Amino acid sequence: MFPNVGKIDKGPGGPGEDAPWWLRYLGRFVGTVSALVAIGLGAQLAVISAVTISSACLLAAILQMIVGMMVALIEAPCFCAFLEFAQAPGNFFDRKPFWYKALLYGVGGVLPVALCHGVTTFFGGGLVFVAGCIYGIMAMGRK
């Protein structure tokens, strides 16, 4: 029914062989939670920014929701089952080294905070950035 639910382990020679199992699951969990939080707080910020007529914060809210949706597509495509292409981004990034996700989540988490300095962007973008840091730690590998 769900063919890709348990597939975090990589094949021989692929990325993720040297990362501990608990760190891989932690990265997936934090990424999933951060996607949901970023989408929710981005929607809240969009409403607040529309009422207060703050264009920079409205742009940050839209960007934060886009980043949250992107992270949800990569980490938990089951949340986006209504989209036909939901499995493709997750499968693409599962075949790539961890630093791809680290760079994508790091930049995606910082941009909304740089545009609007508020609590909602700090927590929403900050959690995405933390997920990027976890993937960065996995990219460095074991000593």
Shape descriptor reads globular
CA radius of gyration is: 16 Å
In the residues, how many domains can be counted?
1
Q: Mean pLDDT, nearest integer? A: 87
The strand count comes to 0
Major pleated sheet: none
Beta-strand content: under 5%
- The ordered H/E elements are HHHHH
Helical percentage:
over 70%
Low-confidence stretches: 9-14
Number of helices: 5
- End-to-end Cα distance, whole Å, is 38 Å
Structural class: mainly alpha
Subcellular location: Cytoplasmic vesicle, Secretory vesicle, Synaptic vesicle membrane; Presynaptic cell membrane
Family: Belongs to the calcium channel flower family.
InterPro entries: TVP18/Ca-channel_flower
GO biological process, one term: vesicle-mediated transport
List the SSEs and their pairings.
Elements: H1 21-52, H2 55-75, H3 87-94, H4 98-115, H5 119-140
Question: What would the keywords be for this entry?
Answer:
mainly alpha
Structure report:
The chain crosses the membrane at residues 29-53, 59-86, 98-115, 121-141. Pfam families: Cg6151-P (PF10233). Its main location: membrane. Keywords: Calcium, Calcium channel, Calcium transport, Cell projection, Cytoplasmic vesicle, Ion channel, Ion transport, Membrane, Transmembrane, Transmembrane helix, Transport. The chain is mainly alpha-helical. The chain has one domain (21-140). Helices cover 71% and strands 0% of the residues. It is built from five helices and no strands. The protein has helices spanning 21-52, 55-75, 87-94, 98-115, 119-140. Helix 1 (21-52) runs antiparallel to helix 5 (119-140). The longest helix is centred in the N-terminal third of the chain and has 32 residues, at 21-52. The protein starts with 20 loop residues before the first helix and ends with a helix.
